[in-house]
Amino acid sequence: MLRFFESTLATLVTLVHFSHFTMRRILTILIILLVCQTSLPALAGVDREKLKKGIQAYEQEQWDEALNRFQDALLDDPENPQLHFNIGAAQYKKQKYEDALKSFEKAILTRDIKLQQHAYYNQGNVFYQMNQYPEAIQAYKKALDLNPGDQDAKFNLELVRAKLKEQAQKQQQQDQQQQRIEPSEYAKQLKAQAEILVAQRLYREAYDLMQQGLQSDPTVAAFQDFITRVKDVIDIGGSQ
User: Fold this and answer.
1) What is the distance between the alpha carbons of residues 189 and 171, in angstroms, rounded to a whole number?
2) Considering its fold, how many domains does the chain have in total?
3) What is the mean pLDDT of residues 156-168?
4) What is the 3-class SS of 140-184, one letter each residue?
5) Domain that holds residue 219
6) Domain ends where: 145, 169, 193?
7) Quick one: which of 41, 77, 133, 187 could link to 164 by a disulfide (CB 3.0–4.6 Å)?
8) Is there a single domain that holds both residue 157 and residue 194?
9) Are 22 and 134 part of one and the same domain?
10) Does 174 fall in a domain?
11) Residue 35 belongs to a domain
12) Closest to 58 measured CA to CA, from 106, 103, 125, 3
């Protein structure tokens, strides 16, 4: 769920806030529009008509138009963190993640704790989209430091932690696969001979053949499971 904040259009349009996606059940980005009040002095030098049009464009999913409107408004107040926040929202929707990160970094400089908290959260969203899971975790933690009751932040934090764990497990499996022994042609031929002996129920001979092969060719160890199974048969009295 993306939290998208704006001042009430019934009065004066002040700013757009974008934040929060929820990855519950499906890993897609959803958007929710919320309404809140923002103090007018925060955007005292900004052309509110530009903001209003930017908000309307954003609500209509016209990301290019929204971004242009917000950037035009930024000309009136280049250091305004709330405007940078809005710009980051549009950049995010345009999948310009690097640009969105920079915009949210500027938004974090605000003295408005609520805006700062949402900016950290949005950074987590962006990092997630960029598959930078450790960075996403840190961003969500900072968001929770400012608002421990943010349930979306808690949920996404745990989800990204799980994603990171899954990623680590996949990497471990890949590493193990790369470390698997590739049997030589000699080892393959040796196993084929041992399988013939097993078919004849000559388990001890098959086992000894494989053991001798191990001494001369370490890649015979690629068939360790086979050797172990033959040994098990021998141990329960299956050898002739």
Assistant:
1) 32
2) 2
3) 91
4) HHHHHHHCCCCHHHHHHHHHHHHHHHHHHHHHHHHHHHHHCCCCC
5) 185-235
6) 169
7) 133
8) no
9) yes
10) no
11) yes
12) 3
Instruction: State the amino acid at position 180 in one-letter form.
Output: R
User: Residue 79 and residue 106: Cα distance in Å, rounded?
Assistant: 8
Specify the pTM: 0.63
pLDDT higher than threshold 60 for residue 111: yes
**163 in a domain, yes or no?**
yes
Is residue 25 domain-shared with residue 122, that is, in the same domain?
Answer: yes
Which residues have CB under 8 Å from 82's CB, separation 6+?
14, 15, 17, 38, 42, 43, 107, 110, 112, 115
For 6-42, write each residue's pLDDT tens digit: 433 332 333 444 444 434 332 322 222 222 334 444 5
pLDDT tens digit sequence for 219-229:
999 899 899 99
- pLDDT in the model for residue 207: 95
Q: Is residue 230 part of a domain?
A: yes
Residue 72 pLDDT more than 50?
yes
Is residue 106 within 8 Å of residue 82, measured between CB atoms? no
Structure-token pair, residue 196:
């013939």
